[in-house]
Design a protein that fits this description.
This protein is mostly helical and about 325 residues long. It has 9 helices and 3 strands, in the order αααααααββαβα. It has a 3-stranded mixed sheet with strand order 1-2-3, with helices on one face. The two termini are about 45 Å apart.
Length: about 325
């Protein structure tokens, strides 16, 4: 958690410095196009500040009021960031549209382009670093902040190209027109972040994570694990919570059942890229399971195995044993 906080602090400090640089570029050029980038930099600072708090809160231990921990605050952090980005984009579109009808002259656009180009390069490098660390540390907050900085790099690159065009082309409307286009792009980016955060807060299934779990279980399944079904995955910050049913031979005693459950838990936590808490409900096998059961020397087998049942998204997430259609 200390590493996460350090990354966010660095992002916050860099965001403040770059915000001041961008506003200096605006006051040099008085370009609406530059103002789009400067306005978004305010969002960078606010988002990084809130991200720092959310990382701190997510690191707090579970308590009686939060039995699954505080990790979901990271989704709320991303929601705030996406909302702020969208608001900034809407304001930029409105101001740019106004200035299309009431244009004004811009100044020293090449100087402004150089300043914006440098800030964009810094944001791009920091953004790629944060995305990489966010995936490594399983932090949606750090990854979202990194993607926001990449968006800022893209808009800054567009700004540099646009400012060069403004310098060489005698069209006063070009500054405002380009700022409107960038504003629309910023709104779309903000919407995507809000959509992702709402999905997390609503416990929307993360199919990438579930597919990875299914792959691990298929590759290292034991013959004792007759089937897995009713699997549900919920992400709480950097941790994953999974409920599932595991069908085992009905002649296993409680100690053997406990051992098999522990093996599933141990396997996933060793092979998956995210810390996982399992709640596994065990079901006894039924005679109808025999045709896909691989258990050797089974004393209660009613028919030979005749089919290999691969675990898939379809059969592992249903609340039914595999023979139940």
């Amino acid at each position: 958690m200390k590493e996460k906080r350090n990354i966010i602090v660095i992002a916050l400090i860099v965001s403040i410095v770059l915000m001041l640089a961008k506003f200096s570029a605006y006051f040099i050029t008085f370009s609406n196009f530059v103002l789009t980038d400067a306005a978004e930099s305010i969002v960078n600072v606010l988002a990084s500040a809130f991200a720092f708090y959310s990382i701190y809160l997510a690191s707090q231990p579970r308590d009686i009021n939060h039995p699954y921990g505080h990790g979901k605050v990271e989704f709320f952090s991303v929601f705030i960031e996406g909302t702020l980005i969208s608001i900034a984009g809407i304001i930029i579109v409105l101001k740019g549209t106004y200035n299309l009808f009431y244009p004004h002259e811009v100044h020293k656009v090449i100087t402004g382009a150089i300043i914006i180009g440098v800030t964009g390069a810094v944001n791009g490098g920091l953004g790629y670093y944060m995305i990489s660390k966010g995936k490594t540390l399983n932090s949606i907050t750090i990854e979202a902040d990194g993607r926001h900085l990449i968006t800022d790099m893209v808009t800054s690159s567009g700004l540099v190209v646009g400012l060069v065009l403004i310098h060489f082309l005698p069209y006063m409307w070009l500054d405002s027109g380009l700022s409107v286009l960038v504003g629309v792009y910023i709104v779309i980016t903000g919407y995507k972040l809000v959509r992702k955060s709402v999905g997390g807060l609503m416990d929307e299934a993360d199919f990438t994570i579930v597919q990875d779990l299914i792959r691990i279980l298929n590759e290292q399944r034991k013959v004792e694990w007759i089937d897995v079904h009713n699997l549900r995955a919920q992400k709480y910050g950097h941790e994953l919570h999974i409920d599932c049913h595991l069908t085992l031979p009905n002649y296993f005693d409680l100690n053997r059942v406990h051992d098999e459950v522990h093996l599933v838990d141990e396997l996933i936590n060793k092979e998956a890229k995210i810390k996982t808490e399992f709640f596994i409900h065990t079901d006894p096998c039924l005679p109808d399971c025999c045709y896909y059961c691989s258990m050797p020397n089974c004393p209660i087998r009613s028919e030979p195995k005749r089919e290999y049942m691969e675990w898939t998204m379809a059969n592992i997430t249903r609340n039914k044993k595999h023979f139940e259609q």
